Amino acid sequence: MKKFIYLSLLFAFLAAGAVSAQVVDPVKWQQRIEMESKTEGSMIFTASIDNNWHIYGLKLPDGGPRPTEFVFKELAGAELIGEITPSVKPTEEFDSTFNMNLSWWAKNVEFSQRFKLKDGSEGYRISGTISYQACNTVDGACIAPSKFLIELTQGNPPAAEIPSADVAVKASSDNSLWAPVKFPEGTNNVTPQVADASWIYIFVWGFIGGLLALFTPCVWPMIPLTVSFFLKKNQSRKKSIADALTYGGAIIVIFLVLGLAVTLLFGASKLNDLATNAVFNLIFFALLVVFAISFFGAFEIKLPSGWSNKMDSRADRTTGIVSIFFMAFTLVLVSFSCTGPLIGTLLVEAASQASIVGPAVGLGAFALALAIPFTLCAIFPSLLKELPRSGGWLNSVKVVLGFLELALSLKFLSVADLAYGWGILDREVFVSLWVVIFILLGCYLLGKINFSHDTPSEHVGVGRFFLALISLSFAVYLIPGLWGAPLKGVSAFVPPLYTQDFNLYESGGFKAFSDYDEGMKYAEENNRPVLIDFSGYGCVNCRKMEGAVFDTEEVSGLIKENFVLITLMVDDKRPLAEPMTVTENGKTIVLETVGEKWSYLQRTKFNASTQPFYVQLDNDGQPLTGPYSYNENVAEYVEWLDNGLEAYSKKQNIWI
């Protein structure tokens, strides 16, 4: 038993280490020109690849990793000769990570592209992009696909002869307002560990999800199967306890592996993009709606019976730890059709925290809650006699989960709607749908609504009555939100107040600039300090701060009367009018969306990347005090604002 626990912990530690490795750049690129004559030469691109990493070939089958690709968008005074040529042939083998035959380079490699000058040309300018993806040969970990700009210029090239609408332009950020800053020393910087707080949030929700999963019709029937499995084992009390603990540990490890696999698959830099991606959120919205319809009794979703039967029979035939592992794997497989929506919601929530360990923490908590009762049943099989048999009450649980999934599905639709600016699910529309859903849920619990697979009941139990009371009370709580009430209890889920078309409340909803340069210009013209709010459409903690802090009369009034508020959404998917080329960490990158622009500003000017993140600036773009992160204490936020106002007054020699 100890050996199994040690191995499990070792596996989790190594896997976490692999996840952490995603923050490094395993491939370094250099470029140079080698002229063979006055009119012909070669562009040489050298990829220096770290040990145990590789980049993929120039041509790959669909559905695999990103190939190494060179795209020359602008040719001025020159023309290409032939195609890009690597210095060595790539290795061609079966790649177990992507389950297909692929080609790659695991050692340093040079790529050359020959070109020649056009007649009469006094120089050349060649620009384009290099895109690639690198994976680790040891554990299969991959970095997210990368893309950066290349530009080679000599002499006096003519104007571009192959114009391209997406040729990047120079960044407009080369001014003092965008310059990196240092925060004043001795100020009361309120910057708690947002990542740690987010992990706690994910752990709690994961644990609650695991408890909810216990009462689904897929998981509950597994309890007698578990007891039956362990009753067959005639062994000592000590050995029975050890096997039961091993069983619980196996459940946790399986779910944990799933969480780490998702993290490794999407990579650290793409988690937040995933959480606000329109296609991804629309898919989850549709899936949750389909599952809700299924739970209402329209049809039943099942995994192929052969899968679970095969795993179950394997558990019966094998012995020792192997049989216990197969039993745990059977539980995971059989329960998936009910736990899938819960797990999916959890993974997307973890992704929205932009933390590479979020999925692992969430899935570990989910598995812990799921494993505890099964472990206890394996230790004390007699507990089964006290448990209610599955039947009509499980159908009711199924319907209740259907209502909850229908409500949660709107959150995914809302994130996509906000990130892309569609405007189809404003705050009052969202709240209206929730009000109707929870009123219908309350009516169902009171027996006023029945579905086809429900068991008729002559009376309403005490438990159902109190659940109906909670649901109907929650619906009543939501109703003022139709006219702009803050709804602080659910601010993390509902759209922000600025999407409210009709607002009777004066506390929140103040106008904010959404462009940094425009807001800074307005602040200078009106002699006001600036409050910058780095936020995100998929940022749960941002919505909680808005509801708990910004929408209070004290904070809202203070900002309205004294500050110019600039709210910058780092996950805004709208394309820039013209792409921007910037240099970061020695590499030229292309910013193509509004969110990428504001994320770059936050990283380079303030050396921060978490949201929410608040800074107060003077009219020269310099900080007045330390930054402020996620902290719902209104008094502390007001004190922080007052300190910034005092510092601004001293700088301007005025009193505000």
Describe the structure.
Helices cover 46% and strands 18% of the residues. It is of the alpha+beta class and 656 residues long. The protein folds into 3 domains: 11-167, Thiol:disulfide interchange protein DsbD, N-terminal domain (Immunoglobulin-like), CATH 2.60.40; 194-388, no CATH class; 497-652, Glutaredoxin (3-Layer(aba) Sandwich), CATH 3.40.30. The chain has a 4-stranded antiparallel beta sheet with strand order 1-2-8-5, with no helix packed on it. It has a 4-stranded antiparallel beta sheet with strand order 6-7-3-10, with no helix packed on it. The termini are far apart.
State the helical fraction. Answer: 40-55%
Mean pLDDT: 74
Structural class by secondary-structure content: alpha+beta
Count helical runs: 17
> Distance between the terminal alpha carbons, to the nearest Å?
68 Å
Number of strands: 17
The best one-word shape is globular
- CA gyration radius, whole angstroms: 29 Å
Strand content: 15-25%
Oligomer: single chain
Largest sheet features? 4 strands, antiparallel
Low-confidence stretches: 1-24, 160-174, 191-197, 267-272
Spatial strand order of the main sheet: 1-2-8-5
> How many structural domains?
3
